[in-house]
Amino acid sequence: MDEISIGAAATRSGVKVPTIRYYEQIGLLAAPTRSDSNRRVYSERDLRRLLFIRHARELGLEIDAIKTLLALQDNPDQSCATADQIARARLVEVEQCFVSLPALKVELQAMITSCGRGVVADC
Predict the structure, then answer these.
(1) In this predicted model, what pLDDT tens digit does every residue of 2-22 receive, in sequence order?
(2) Residues 29-79 pLDDT 10s
(3) Is residue 67 domain-resident?
(4) Less CB within 10 Å around the terminal CB: N or C of the chain?
(5) Residue 40 is part of which domain span?
């Protein structure tokens, strides 16, 4: 088994060192083994888990949803219903964003136009 340091895990996963420590604190990532010098040592499995967490965060999933998905991953004989429910809920949120984004764009453009006069009093 290849063992990697927290710095190498951060580099390879794209997750910052403090964030990795945070994920350990909240239970998304198991506490790693320690080297003889008491440094954190991660496995390839830990790295795959970090990559999954990062991807899930990029998709906009909340920590609780990620915890649920990781629990499903850890017990793969379960039904996909829960994972499906999480994905559907996130899709509804994304679709709602598409509905509200045009109005947000118009509002921001109006703000830029009105604030282009030079002083805050004119905005």
Answers:
(1) 789 999 999 999 999 999 999
(2) 999 989 888 899 999 999 999 999 999 999 999 999 999 999 999 998 989
(3) yes
(4) N
(5) 6-78
pTM: 0.81
Distance CA 87, CA 84 (A): 5
In a domain, 100, yes or no: no
In a domain, 94, yes or no: no
Cα maximum dimension of the chain:
64
Residues in a beta bridge with 38: none
When divided into structural domains, the chain yields a total of: 1
Amino acid at 110: A
Q: CA 24 to CA 6: how far, in whole Å?
A: 12
* Residue 97 falls inside a structural domain: no
Please give the Cα distance from 123 to 110 (Å, whole number): 10
Q: 73, 52 in Cβ contact below 8 A?
A: yes
- Cβ partners under 8 Å of residue 8, min gap 6: 42
CA dist 97 → 57, 60, 66, 75, 108 (Å): 17, 12, 21, 33, 15
Residue 1 pLDDT:
52
